[in-house]
Amino acid sequence: MEFQISHFFWLAFSLLLGVGYALFLYSPGIRGRGMPHFVLFALRLLAVASITFLLFAPHIRSVEKTLEKPVIILAQDNSASLIIGSSDSSERTRYSASVKKLYEALSRKYQVDTLLLGDSVRAGFRMDLKDRSTNINSLFQKIRSLYAGRNVGAIILASDGLYNRGGDPLAAALSLRAPVYSVALGDSNESKDLRISNIHYNELIQAGNDFEISLQIEAYQSKGNQPRIRVYRGKELLFSKILNIHTDDFRYNLPIVLPAQRAGTSRYTVRVDTLPNERSFENNIRDFYLQAQDLKKNILIVSDAPHPDISAIRQSLQTAGSYEVRFLYVQDLKPVDVTNADLLILYQLPSQRTSLGGFLSSIKSKPVWYVLGAQSDLPAFSSMQSMLDLKASPSGLESSATINPSFQAFSLPDSLSAAISGYGPLLVPFADVHYKGNHYDLLHQKVGQFNTGKPLFSFSADAEPRFGFLGGEGIWRWRLQAFQTSGSHHLVDQLLNKAVQFLLADADKRRFRVYSSQQIYTSSEPVIFNAELYDESLELVNKPDVSLTLHSAAGSIFSYQFSRMNNSYIMNLGALTAGEYTYKASTKLGNTSYKAEGKLLISADQLEYQEVRANHQLLYQLARQSGGELFYPRQLDDMANSIGMNETLRTVSYENTTMSDLMSMKWILGFICGLMFCEWFLRKRGGDL
Fold first, then answer.
1. If pLDDT is split at 50, 70 and 90, which confidence band does 5 have?
2. Looking at the whole model, is its pTM more than 0.90?
3. How many CB atoms are closer than 10 A to CB 382?
4. Quick one: three-class SS letters along 267-317?
5. Average pLDDT, the chain
6. Structural element, H or E, at residue 570
7. Of the candidates 538, 519, 531, which has an alpha carbon nearest to the alpha carbon of residue 585?
8. SS3 at position 384
9. Mean pLDDT (whole number) for 673-687
10. What is the pLDDT of residues 406-431, one digit of tens each?
């Protein structure tokens, strides 16, 4: 109980009042002398004093101490690359037994939690080595979110050090301030292997035109071999060539021009002959899909001044081969130019120097991509479109970009999401944003490490025709940085081409629409479907149930039910096995039935087979820079001893202080009632009642 001076005064007053009351009832002159009267005197004194003291509502302060053991997180790589790195099943059995022994040894002193690392990070430790990708960076991010505020003593990472998704895991590991103990799995020695390391191609090509792909071939410890490379479209052989491997560390870039295809989506296969005693055969074959479009679209870029962004945008869009891209100064613009354009890109127009004047009405009938900059006339821009109002900044703001994770209008590769946050900032001319209509935000502004949530690259959600805006200038730097980091402009080109493809998509006037976030997935990506149902007033409704059946090329049929989200529908099918699928969806609104159908392609995710040599150097860096150590599978007993000797792993004591009213404690009421009952009982027995 927490007493103050006022408490002592009130306690003294309560005792005096209790003594006075008891003397009034049980003084020797009134009741006589003897032990029974003394007991009655004491009972009445305590009862009256207790009741009086409780009227002051004193508080009691309690302190609860909790001891938390250090948490050891045991993370096991479950990716398929470990099968290649250690093909000996007896060795894997011995390893599993050693890990179990390590778990039991550590559990005697620490709390040990287990995680599996692969396509996702999840609880558990049952290995099947079937995950098709690895993102070590996501492991440390998951630990940060799951164990925030916890006493994380150490992280044990059992892996071959190979990752093919996400960024460099080193920075994320160091931010946790916990030592990483690495278990080096797999084989880091170079062995005989021939593989297709990469294929560069454009997903969208022009139907009827020849197109080019670029193969990257790597071979190790294979000098003197002469394998043949073949490229197929379906079962049709399109290209064949013998490759002469003249060194044990062989790398070769092979550009190939392939013949045109009809409009639609086609599957292509690249095969390289397998070699005797080769370490892995899975990376000798790669599949990819291409979409061919019928007609080229005319894109017109309009500006009132030159800028390097214009050239960068033009070069990016021309890589697809599906667009005719022209540039005109606004003073040279003619009505026929606007009429012939399928898409307008207005670079910093309307500007503070130039208005669009008589072209406004014709521009509003076309899909438009606005690019804002320091010379943009923001009030005029705000009045031209129905999505947002912008308030000009006194001076331009420099803002980096970050992908909006909830964006679903179209899909982008994970590699772009990781890379774009490292690109240089754009000069953004506006400060405040007020939305007037529905929108899709692809990129948000990022200042330092803070995601402001303000739009940087957005698209209209319900306007016809569609329009979008890029809220800053300087995208030419992104292409340079993309080339500097990856040797290619592909990521930025893909971002701009996907945006233009979305803006050029014909407005869908169907009452029932079902579509996936993309048409081609890999076998490790979740397949997401969206559905929209419109009533006779063309307003979104989602009261009726919507069902979908998925048919695989092998003849299997799967049935699903959409979930409701806001006024539309959504469904996540998870990852599907590689192959071709057709889907049919149906619903009924009133007396009218609606149906929709389409095609879906799932390509085999072969990321885990591209690199088979374990990266123990990464595991060593993670351990050394975080304060841990590197061990091999046969040294797990030494790891348990090393962790046990680490003085930084200590039990933490937490104190939880609570304040409560003394009057709220039930035992106090019971105590007072007990005093009064005893007094009543003794008086009745003595004949005083």
1. very low
2. no
3. 18
4. EEEEEECCCCCCCCCHHHEEEEEEEEECCCEEEEEEECCCCHHHHHHHHHH
5. 85
6. strand 568-574
7. 531
8. helix
9. 79
10. 887 777 777 787 788 889 899 999 88
